Amino acid sequence: MKRKDNRNTFTVSDPTLILQALVSLKDTRVLEYRRDRAVQYLRVWQIVKDPLCPGCGGRAWVKDRVEVSYIDLPVYGKPMRLVWRKHRFWCPRLDCQKKSWVGTDPMTLARTLTATSR
Asked: What span, in angstroms and rounded, lies between the C-alpha atoms of 101 and 27?
């Protein structure tokens, strides 16, 4: 009997990489996972490369980061709180009307039920 060669099998032991694979959000890094009795917390950070200003199309800069907390569907019977560390950007061009904005990710927003600012 011929044994099938399975080249798609891989083994990961790093907890962060395991969580990233489970979360499966594009360009997202898992910062922390913890359980606090009745609730699970997952902190993530979106990886942003070369951000552009939506107002003028020029290069934007990270101003700071804010954390937004979402209540997600239960995992293993316990509520999951997704804490997304979002980027707040600014445009350095004086003639641009946009000035400052917070980044969004349609995939994260589509996977959440209720948003509460933190």
From this structure: 19
